[in-house]
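Write out the 3D structure for:
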Amino acid sequence: MPLFGFWYWVQSVGGIAGITQTPATVGYTRIFAFDGIGNFYEFRNNVLLNRARYRVVTKPTIFGTTSQVLEVTGYPDMIVSFPNFRTMVLTENVFDGFTLTFIRIF
């Protein structure tokens, strides 16, 4: 499934403490946007926070599998999966990382 579009962050789970974060608990919204030519945009409270380049590659993960991995300049590598058409899950490809869940908004 293509990344192209806007993705609204709904929660992050993990880290060393095993915490759960949501827009309500952290006090801000977060949107990831991907265009079709390799540009990534992160918005916080609808304000552009960061712009970078991205690509998706197949490579080994810390879990001992080979998976689709999202590489965004300046961010940890993230294993990308799509449980359904409207949901994207990004799992940081590091020990004690976070798993971020997004829903497609456009």
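The chain has one domain: 5-104.
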